[in-house]
């Protein structure tokens, strides 16, 4: 992602459902879409508010407020309460850091994701797995519902012991770091984007697992060095519905019999298409986590 200065920011305040709905639309329904969207609990007196959430959307140019209002006045008719968005112009030269850097730590299952500034807040509990991720130019601080959903579903399968794991579309490498810490075994990670690969490398060092995570730049399985590592018996793919559908035949090719694939990044209305694509390619759905309108699906290869 480019560094942009200045940046325009819209903020909404409301309950979790409404705010996650708005955050989804800001990412998907606007043309052009917001360049970054964050969804988080509002902070009151230094503590996360129990019920109030913020949806924040960042734009390189002033957004078209009329079309935003039209879009939301239509879709928000049944959503109460309706709050007018708050609009501001930022003068920060690292907008992604600005957007995400002030977000507090989050807990997803046994995983505790935090920035360097929150190290002292790591709970003193042996069951907690801390992961340090700085807000940066790669996706995956854990604040997006798809990442948190993958971590929550991963947490349920702590007892599994897959031998050959791939985090495809690793972004910050948050899922690879979580999996290598939880399963205590080496993991492969890949991303189509060179900048994300660079940041993923930094994050595995930061988390003390650089010797356990092997990272490749690759579109899907196109990099032969990555394909050579197959067959995988567990693959995470938190990317978008389009690439997930296109990848179904290759997933079938590179995942071994009884191997699992966890898919995220799709929205609820894209689920049938994904389930059909994976079923047609020899997978059977075995689990589903419904998280803030972004389902996470788990399939086994028959
Ligand atoms: C939504 S982010 C997920 C990041 C991280 N895995 C997480 O769960 O937070 C999707 C990532 O997939 C990468 N990506 C998108 N299409 C891809 C493809 N066809 N092959 C590999 N990576 C891809 C993007 O560059 C991006 O870093």
Which SSEs are present, and which pair or pack?
Elements: E1 7-14, H1 16-28, E2 36-44, E3 47-59, H2 65-75, E4 86-90, H3 95-101, E5 106-108, E6 111-114, E7 129-132, H4 145-156, E8 165-168, H5 174-183, E9 187-191, H6 194-206, E10 213-217, H7 224-227, E11 232-238, H8 241-254, E12 255-264, H9 271-280, E13 283-291, E14 294-301
Parallel strand pairs: 6-7, 8-9, 8-11, 9-10, 11-12
Antiparallel strand pairs: 1-3, 1-4, 2-3, 5-6, 12-14, 13-14
Structure write-up:
This protein has 302 residues and is α/β, with parallel strands linked by helices. It folds into 2 domains: 7-101, Alpha-Beta Plaits, CATH 3.30.70; 140-301, Vaccinia Virus protein VP39 (Rossmann fold, 3-Layer(aba) Sandwich). 31% of the residues lie in helices and 31% in strands. A 7-stranded mixed β-sheet has the order 10-9-8-11-12-14-13, sandwiched between helices. A hairpin with a 2-residue loop joins strand 2 (36-44) and strand 3 (47-59). The radius of gyration is 19 Å and the shape is globular. Bound molecules: S-adenosylmethionine (SAM). S-adenosylmethionine is lined by residues 138-140, 146-147, 150, 168-171, 174-175, 190-193, 196, 219-220, 238-239, 243, 265.
């Amino acid at each position: 992602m480019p560094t942009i200065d200045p940046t325009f920011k819209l903020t909404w305040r409301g309950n979790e459902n409404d705010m996650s709905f708005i955050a989804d639309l800001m990412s998907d329904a606007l043309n052009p879409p917001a360049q970054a969207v964050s969804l988080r609990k509002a902070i009151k007196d230094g503590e996360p508010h129990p019920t109030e959430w913020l949806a924040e959307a960042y734009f390189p140019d002033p957004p078209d407020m009329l079309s935003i209002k039209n879009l939301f006045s239509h879709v928000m008719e049944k959503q109460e309460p309706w709050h007018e968005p708050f609009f501001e112009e930022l003068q920060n030269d690292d907008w992604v850091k600005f957007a995400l850097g002030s977000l507090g730590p989050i807990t997803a299952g046994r995983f505790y994701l935090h920035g360097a500034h929150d190290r002292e807040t790591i709970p003193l509990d042996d069951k907690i797995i801390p992961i340090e991720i700085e807000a940066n130019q790669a996706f995956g601080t854990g604040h997006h519902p798809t990442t948190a959903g993958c971590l929550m579903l991963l947490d349920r399968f702590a007892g599994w012991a897959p031998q050959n794991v791939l985090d495809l579309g690793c972004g910050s490498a948050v899922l690879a770091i979580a999996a290598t810490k939880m399963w205590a075994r080496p993991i492969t990670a890949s991303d189509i984007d060179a900048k994300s690969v660079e940041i993923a490398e930094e994050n595995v060092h930061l988390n003390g697992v650089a010797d356990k995570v092997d990272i490749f730049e690759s579109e899907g399985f196109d990099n032969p060095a990555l394909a050579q590592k197959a067959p995988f018996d567990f693959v995470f793919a938190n990317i978008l519905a389009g690439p997930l559908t296109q990848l179904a035949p290759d997933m079938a090719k590179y995942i071994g019999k009884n191997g699992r694939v966890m898919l995220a990044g799709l929205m609820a209305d894209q689920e049938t298409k994904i389930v059909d694509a994976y079923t047609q390619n020899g997978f059977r759905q075995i689990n589903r986590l419904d998280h803030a309108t972004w389902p996470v699906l788990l399939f086994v290869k028959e």
